[in-house]
Amino acid sequence: MKRIGILTGGGDAPGLNAVIRAAVKTAINEYKCEVFGIRNGYDGFLEPDGIVPLNAESVRGILPRGGTILGSVNRGNPYERKIIRDGQEVIIDVSDEVVKGVHRLELDALLVLGGDGTLSSAHEFSKKGVPVIGVPKTIDNDIGGTEITFGFDTALNIATEALDRLHTTAESHHRVMVIELMGRDAGFITLNAGVSGGADVILIPEIPFSFESIMKKIRARHEHGRSFSLIAVSEGAKSRDGMQVFSRSGDEMYVARLGGIGQIVAEYIDKHGFESRVTVLGHVQRGGTPTAFDRWLATRYGAAAVRLAARGGFDRMVALQRGEITDIPIAEAIKVPKRVNVNGDAVITARNIGISFGDE
Ligand code: F6P
Known about the structure:
Helix content is 35%, strand content 20%. Strand 14 (316-321) and strand 15 form a beta hairpin. The protein folds into two domains: 3-150 and 290-321, Rossmann fold (3-Layer(aba) Sandwich), CATH 3.40.50; 155-287 and 341-352, Phosphofructokinase domain (Rossmann fold, 3-Layer(aba) Sandwich). It has helices spanning 16-31, 95-104, 116-127, 152-173, 188-196, 211-223, 261-271, 292-310, 330-335, 345-352, and strands at residues 3-8, 34-38, 51-54, 81-85, 88-92, 109-114, 132-136, 176-181, 201-203, 229-234, 246-248, 257-258, 276-280, 316-321, 324-329. The chain contains ten helices and 15 strands. The structure holds 6-O-phosphono-beta-D-fructofuranose (F6P).
């Protein structure tokens, strides 16, 4: 193994730079490799300044930095790229250009740090002969075959701190505070932060809710002298009749963007007699310095990805299972997205301590 490339695709997640740093150091120290960074996901292979050499100097000081020094795009699927041709928007497949870029750079391995979309493209590139290695990244924690993705712990801590802060103001003003959290169709951030931050109601996509059930919980709290409540709502939460709220609809190019359910829940509560306010935490959950756990996990993933490449374990992804780093086929990781186990101990524990999921 003489030359490896690294790219970061999809939404950023705290810990990306820690993976890049660990991979570069391992590649240089252990394998005397040359390392190249590909800018802005797969797009870097198509752009004139899209490739940057990476060395010990380029990764100095980046361990605690959020974001990614390589840049990212989350509409960067090379199999469906939007371009303007003769004044018209058209979708074209530029994957062969990417493959040519990999050959031009004479890469012996391409480390792809991404979520389900970026990893699905990686798997397709593997079929075209590109020696890809996957590293699971997302704050949503929804990638199969791994206990946890880096970025999740940071998002969880930020969300929990926000709940703590809302708690005191909710109590002072006798209000219902609704907080809308990220996660797309997976409720991990909301469930874990909701439990850790003492939410009274947790609404996640995996457990459809009814508005009346939320009100039942708020009323019961009031009857027991609790004049405030905290509601953690996942952006992808669904009502029992299947309603999910989007801030922008999707098209053939863009996936629909979730957002707005918090406002709807808060308005309902307000209309039914309890003063309510909503906070949408948004991209704050993705920004800034990674937690120690995410730095630690990201560093282990980065080094392990290079070791996997050296063993020729292509079309595979590093994963955490039973606390140890292992590797699994990328196809397995993307086959079934991970979701909250509604019968698992986390949900049962939440119910045991009196949290409502809006389904009683
Ligand atoms: O997948 C990570 C994530 O932050 C989701 O939780 C959220 O729905 C989405 O990305 C937001 O995407 P964007 O950065 O395009 O607004």
